[in-house]
Amino acid sequence: MKRLLLLAAAAAAPFVFPTIAQRHLLILIAINVILVASLDLLMGTAGLLSLGHAGFMGIGAYTSALLALHYRIPFLLALAAAALAGGLAGLFIGYPSLRLRHHYFVLVTFIFGIILTLLFTSLVGVTRGPMGLPGIPFATIGLPQVGAHTFNTFRSKVDYYYLVAGAAGGVLWLRGRLVRGRLGAALIAIREEEQLAMAVGIPTHRYKVLAFVISTAIAGAAGSLYAHYATFISPEVFTFVDSFNLFVMNMIGGAGTPAGPVVGPLLLTVVRDTLRNISPVAAEIAFGAFLIAAIAFLPTGLMGALRRSAGRGR
Q: Taking the complete model, does pTM exceed 0.85, yes or no?
């Protein structure tokens, strides 16, 4: 019943919020749901914190944009290439660093995210550096009995909203399947007591690398969806601050809870956008304040607190 209500709310959202600004915000929320759901596979399930997630999103965004701009690669192939690039980057970083203790892994992802931002900025011949990549083609998908449909987001945002909302629903479904399956059981065992998990024969390194690769591949795909929506990307969208914001969204929503990756982005994307219209600095300060409040008063996030309250009421 709850899922049907959620689907109905998602389907009605662009008509309840009909202005261009409101629909723009809905698309950003859906993309952030994808990113936070992929991050939650690490944080909520395995207890691994990645502070470079926006960098993996950037890898996907630039991969998809460059393929579409220079080689006229169709959108769906560019999307798959973005996910592949994000996953390969995750494998490159995750395979050696996930043998380290958790705080060293956090440090590695933090440094890798900064290196990626520097590369996006300095490889001017490829990425155009701070000037950014303009003119990224709109997403075009062939539909049965309709033919090719171009998601021209300058004319209408409704159809692209349904595309990214469908992708977000697919990622949430995949995350649920993975968490309830063998991978999820292994990751929870690793989160609770890694040495004990190793003692009972769980290949902990293999499972952690697999979760990290899946997570970064999804982040890469989210980058592709963002690039073909905005039609312009620049390094300032994929910085450490953006990775930190995703972390805060996951914390506030409730890491490891089914609805947390929806509630956190929904709440904080609206707050951030509202505050940025007033002052960009105020928006970043607010995210820091939200994180402090979450650590002090809501260590399990909003959904974790609601779950505990419901448990006491029974």
A: yes
